[in-house]
């Protein structure tokens, strides 16, 4: 079974703090993604990566950065957390070898910025 | 940004009822259509991945169809059970990026 794990299920941070959200997958997938989910807006893509040390901006990259130093790990960084970044963050991985690039998701991290 | 729409937004049905949801997506730049089930406190889980116009896929009581020319997909649940209660997400994959709808929240009342 593919496993995608995220470092925390719940996180509370203060405005201005630097926040790291970690995601690890164990299926040697090339592709990894970070989404945020907000009520009424669906999943929105923040950043994605198709290879180690490679990153692409998604639809809402402002205020975020990412790091992919190893194939299995994709980190999302909030350089200076703000209250509008309070959200559910989901990581996913996929392989182009799977039909339609099927995604496997982690359990999510619910981040609250106060 | 692609506009993927799902309807209805939410649905309450009685146990045993059959139901269906719609996902609409732009037919240009289409590569694949994904359906996911997202239960509370769990990870979204892939139900179906469809790529070809006219595709029909089935998993137990759940099935899906795809029309890429007109840009829609239907998800059907036959004889709904309480364990089917979840949010059902669809996503259009362009070959480069995924675009998700806002989901249909299904509640099956015992």
Task: List the main descriptive attributes of the protein structure presented here.
heterodimer, A: 114 residues, mainly beta, seven-stranded mixed beta sheet, 11 strands, globular, B: mainly beta, six-stranded mixed beta sheet, five-stranded antiparallel beta sheet, 55% strand
Report on the architecture of this protein.
The complex is a heterodimer of chains A (114) and B (110). Chain A contains no helices and eleven strands. In chain A, strands 2, 4, 5, 6, 9, 10 and 11 form a seven-stranded mixed beta sheet that branches. Chain A has a four-stranded antiparallel beta sheet with strand order 1-3-8-7, with no helix packed on it. Chain A is globular. The relative contact order of chain A is 0.33. The model of chain A has no long low-confidence stretch (mean pLDDT 93). Chain B is mainly beta. Helix content of chain B is 0%, strand content 55%. Chain B is built from no helices and eleven strands. In chain B, strands 2, 4, 5, 9, 10 and 11 form a six-stranded mixed beta sheet that branches. In chain B, strands 1-3-8-7-6 form a five-stranded antiparallel beta sheet, with no helix packed on it. Chain B is globular. The chains are: A mainly beta (114), B mainly beta (110).
Residue-averaged pLDDT of chain A: 93
Residue share in helix of chain A: under 10%
Largest sheet of chain A: 7 strands, mixed
Beta fraction of chain B? over 45%
Describe the global form of chain B: globular
Secondary-structure-derived class of chain A: mainly beta
Helical stretch count of chain B? 0
> Could you list the spans of chain A in which at least 5 consecutive residues all have pLDDT below 50?
none
| Span of the ends, CA to CA of chain A | 37 Å
Q: Regions of chain B with pLDDT < 50 over 5+ consecutive residues?
A: none
